[in-house]
Amino acid sequence: MAEDKKMTIIEHLEELRRRLIYSAVAVFSIALLAYFFRTQLLEILARPLAQGPFLPRSQIPPLIEALRRFLEAEGAGYFTQEQIEALLIVLKRLLYMQSGLIFIHPTEAFFAYLKLSFFTGLLFGAPFVLYQLWRYIVPALYAHERRYFRSAVAFGTLLFFTGVAFAFFVVLPLGIGFLIRMGGPELQAVFTVGNYISFAMILLIAFGLVFELPIVIYVLVKLGVVTRAFLKAKRKHVLVLTFVLAAIITPTVDPFTQTVTAVPLLLLYELSIFLARFAERRPGLVEERGGVKP
Fold first, then answer.
1. What DSSP state is assigned to residue 101?
2. 3-state class (DSSP) for residue 258
3. Which domain holds residue 220?
4. Model's pTM, two decimal places?
5. Strands in the chain per DSSP E
């Protein structure tokens, strides 16, 4: 064992409480900092909307100005200046509504920014939470097991943010476009800020967790919990379970988003099988557990 002194149940609970407090403080601190940059964060999070059928906000002011000059030059005999201004105001409001987010309740914007800050703290605080988890379980690990978990924390952080990036740049724009097209010409897509933040952030965090699969399986194989042969034999079961899991972790019930979630899961599982060949214990290898062979 890493430590000669064994902890009691009370000491284990106290240590767990301490790690949870550290994690909560880290997440809350990042969330507090994120609140001061809430408008910039929301602008970044809403960028996938501009990649769909929406008109980018940067194009709205010059478009309104061009329409103003056109109406003043060509519509002088049809519209008064007051009518032109009123028409442009309404049109500008509609264009901004179609190019971004709205709120339909007086307090929705305030609580949406709080939600955005909390999710940001959870997203960027995940590596620290993972580190605290590792610190909690490390006293119960053997020396060789500690090395595996230390590497798992480092690569797990990299994979987590790779999953977040994949969701943000690929899945979210495709999913938004698909869901809007599902409405058809009869239904007009207008997203409230609170609903969009929940949809986008849950999707990002879900994909970040999904991309942890190779690390989890690698560590389990290293510890001898599962084998590469076992993983290969369960491919058919994983195929079914993957789509079930995709249906659970995706915020929507449309088949497109679930399929886009399931395919990376299957690829990650295949990557896990490939990595397992390097993690599997070799016959005759003497372990550090007192020199006992596996």
1. E
2. helix
3. 9-54+100-279
4. 0.71
5. 101-102, 191-192
Q: State whether residue 179 is helix, strand or coil.
A: helix
How many C-beta atoms surround the C-beta of residue 264 within 10 A?
Answer: 21
pLDDT digits (tens, 9 = 90+) for 163-220: 999 889 888 887 777 777 776 666 667 788 889 999 999 889 888 888 888 888 887 8
Structure tokens at 202: 């849950």
* Both structure tokens of 149: 């978990």
89 located within any domain: no
Whether 88 maps to a domain, the answer reads no
- The encoded tokens of residue 21 equal 């407090």
Rounded to a whole number of angstroms, the distance between the first and last alpha carbons of the chain is 17
Domain presence at residue 68 = no
Residue 168 placed within a domain: yes
Q: What is the pLDDT of residues 242-254, one digit of tens each?
A: 888 777 655 555 6
Enter the DSSP assignment of 94.
H
Predicted confidence (pLDDT) per residue in 150-165, tens digit: 777 778 888 899 999 9
Nearest 5°: the CA angle 123, 213, 17 is 50
Give dist(CA 155, CA 144) in Å, integer: 17
Backbone angles phi, psi at 229, to 5 degrees: -65, -40
Domain count across the chain: 1
Matching residue, tokens 């915020």: 251
State residue 192 phi and psi, 5-degree precision.
-80, 150
Cβ–Cβ under 8 Å, residues 251 and 194:
no
Distance CA 125, CA 209 (A): 13
Rounded-to-integer distance, Cα 201 and Cα 219, Å: 28
What is the per-residue burial (b if ≥16 Cβ within 10 Å, else e) of 49-75?
A: bbebebeeeeebeeeeeebeeebeeee
Q: Strand pairing partners for 101?
A: 191
Half-sphere CA count of 143, side-chain side, radius 13 A: 6
Cα(173)–Cα(211) distance, integer angstroms: 19
